[in-house]
Specification:
Elements lengths: L1 H6 L2 H67 L1 H9 L8 H20 L4 E7 L12 E3 L1 H4 L4 H9 L4 E2 L3 E3 L8 E11 L9 E8 H11 L6 E6 L4 E4 L2 H10 L9 E8 L2 E9 L5 E8 H38 L1 H13 L14 H39 L4 H17 L3 H18 L5 E3 H18 L4 E7 L7 E3 L4 H9 L11 E10 L2 E8 L6 H6 L13 H13 L4 E7 L3 E9 L3 H8 L1
Parallel strand pairs: 1-2, 13-15
Antiparallel strand pairs: 1-6, 3-5, 4-5, 5-6, 7-8, 7-11, 9-10, 10-11, 12-14, 15-16, 16-18, 17-18
């Protein structure tokens, strides 16, 4: 075995030596961790269930205390006690007298409900009274006598105790559908129930409120919580479907002694259940948690851990394999980097921490690529300077002094011959070329560039009988910023040449120029109402072999100059739609003339 291991390649040896012990240790730690997490998870569920159960018990107890307090208020109300002691309300025959009694008692009950809107107050009255069937604040005494538990009720009432009804429907007739409610009963007047003039008051609460509390006590999907009384009636349940299913499979725990999370088997399923009696009422809250929920969650957790374990083991193996490959194939990596440099990828970063011979080769190679990159950047700067020099040489080919003197001579001759139009043309042309040539400098103020456009349009308007309408809109302070010269006039020229000049039947040509700052940039937008272009046409404008522009510097030339002077993030872009016109956006950095001159040096 040892001989075979020694004959294996070094990469396999390193992989097995590194990954084997780590995988064994990891599996052992994972097994122990799973058992600990499983135990803690079960404890956490029990703790959460306890918290929800206790909270539900507290809410129910609070409702019972409130209902008992309201009954105490009913029993101590002076007006009501005066009417009850008089007893005449029980024997009145006239409808008017009965309705007056109704409104007096109704006002008392309503006033109690205003401060406790969740509860409904009422009293039981003789059946012969015309408002006995109200079933909101008044209930017929015969309702109690019809109950199976009437004798038990009488015993408790005679002892001065309270009593709870089962589920019953009550509410104002105007609502149409009465809600199910559970009522607390208490004798508020008289000696012995059934033997004389007595009065029983009631305070009820909607079953919806009880169900809301019970639902919140159930924290599992397949679990069940329900509220029952000593007669075995289910007053509220968290999930009716689960209740029916469990009832079919076996008997549910009922009213009995308190129990805290004991095992219970219903059919084929195992449950943990807790039940607790409520003070002041023969009610019991019961909560069941299926063991299956524990198993389901721990099963999902176990499968997740197994999946992650497989991924981690594979990762350990892969890392081990890659480390072996690293230590045996470093020369191959160096050769790969050399080929990348040969293919023109000079931005490689070589970080080497080793100090052996291969590490020295890596460092020497990194130094060589950096120096090569510096030489190429230096060559680029030299080429940029050459392009700038060539551009300035082109601009300087015209003798500005000769041109200005000639135009000045034309202007004076026009004045002598009283030709104001020729004089105006000569003046605009002189201004146009003065800004264009700019004494060989590239940088002009935005105000001068805009005047350059105005002069050009005034000249062109002599050709087109003032059909060209130019509107210039500038943000405050923009005119004092700097730009390279002749970056707007070519687009104005294109707007004229490809609209009114191309279609003589057009009456006007409208051009709008907007200059504004956007953050650290200066943006010009030249908008016209010409024929517009398709997307394919706008994309061909900046292609190398495109010759669509035949006047001035052209869009491609302006875009090239901007990128050459300011960088690739600046330049010209087009937005155009057939029949609606074109918008050209020129973006340059927002610089003062001094800053712009320094940038171009």
């Amino acid at each position: 075995m040892k001989v075979k291991f020694r004959q294996l390649p070094m990469r396999i040896k390193l992989t097995v030596s590194f990954s084997g012990p780590m995988i064994v240790i990891f599996v052992l730690l994972l097994s122990v961790s799973y058992r600990i997490i499983e135990t803690q998870y079960e404890e956490q569920i029990i703790y959460s269930a306890d918290q929800s159960f206790e909270q539900a018990v507290n809410f129910l107890q609070n409702h019972l205390q409130n209902m008992n307090y309201i009954l105490e208020l009913v029993g101590s109300d002076r007006k009501l006690q005066d009417m009850l002691s008089d007893g005449s309300y029980r024997i009145r025959q006239e409808a008017g007298d009965q309705w007056r009694d109704y409104w007096r008692i109704n006002d008392i009950m309503t006033s109690l409900e205003l401060s406790n809107k969740m509860y409904q107050c009422g009293i039981y009255v003789p059946d012969r009274l015309i408002y006995a069937e109200n079933r909101y604040h008044f209930f017929p005494e015969s309702d109690l006598k019809k109950k199976d538990y009437y004798e038990e009720l009488c015993d408790r009432m005679n002892q001065g105790l309270i009593y709870f009804t089962g589920l019953e429907r009550s509410g104002p007739e105007i609502v149409g559908v009465k809600k199910q409610r559970v009522a607390m009963l208490k004798k508020v007047y008289g000696d012995e129930l059934g033997g004389g003039e007595t009065c029983i008051a009631r305070v009820s609460i909607a079953v919806d409120e009880l169900e809301r509390i019970v639902v919140n006590s159930d924290i599992t999907q397949k679990g069940l919580s329900f509220l029952t009384n000593e007669r075995g009636e289910i007053l509220a349940v968290s999930n009716q479907e689960n209740l029916e299913t469990l009832s079919e499979n076996g008997s549910l725990p009922g009213y009995g002694s308190n129990a805290s999370w004991q095992d219970l088997r219903i059919g084929d399923a195992s449950y943990l259940y807790r039940q607790q009696k409520l003070d002041q009422a023969e009610w019991m809250l019961v909560s069941l948690i299926p063991r299956q929920d524990f198993y389901r969650q721990t099963y999902l957790m176990g499968m997740t851990l197994i999946l992650f374990s497989i991924l981690i083991v594979l990762s350990i193996f892969l890392i081990s394999w890659m480390l072996g490959k690293y230590y045996t194939k470093r020369l191959v990596a160096l050769n790969t980097r050399m080929k990348q440099v040969q293919n023109g990828q000079l931005s490689l970063e070589v970080d080497v921490e080793e100090s052996d011979e291969i590490g020295e080769l890596f460092r020497s190679f990194g130094y060589m690529t950096k120096e090569l990159r510096k030489l190429i950047l230096e060559q680029y700067r030299l080429g940029k300077n050459v392009k700038t020099a060539e551009l300035r040489a082109l601009q300087a080919q015209i003798n500005p002094h000769f041109l200005y003197n000639t135009l000045d001579l034309i202007n004076w001759e026009a004045m002598d011959y009283n030709a104001p139009e020729i004089m105006e043309i000569a003046r605009n042309l002189a201004q146009f070329y003065r800004i264009s040539l700019n004494k060989g400098r590239q940088i002009v103020r935005v105000e001068e560039e805009l005047n350059h456009v105005r002069a050009y349009v005034r000249i062109e308007n002599y050709h087109f009988d003032n059909a060209i309408h130019l509107e210039i809109d500038t943000e405050e302070g923009v005119e004092e910023l700097a730009c390279i010269n002749i970056i707007l006039q070519p687009f104005v020229e294109n707007a004229i040449m490809y609209s009114i000049a191309k279609a003589p039947d057009r009456e006007t040509c409208n051009i709008h120029i907007r200059a504004e700052r956007e953050g650290e940039d200066l943006v010009f937008r030249i908008t016209d109402d010409g024929f517009g272009m398709t997307r394919e046409q706008t994309e061909r404008i900046f292609e190398e072999n495109s010759h669509d522009v035949s006047h001035g510097y052209g869009a491609k030339n302006v875009n090239f100059r901007i990128k050459l002077c300011y960088g690739e993030e600046y330049g010209v872009s087009y937005e155009s739609e057939i029949g609606k016109g074109t918008t050209v956006t020129v973006r340059i950095p927002a610089l003062t003339p001094e800053e712009a001159e320094k940038k171009l040096q």
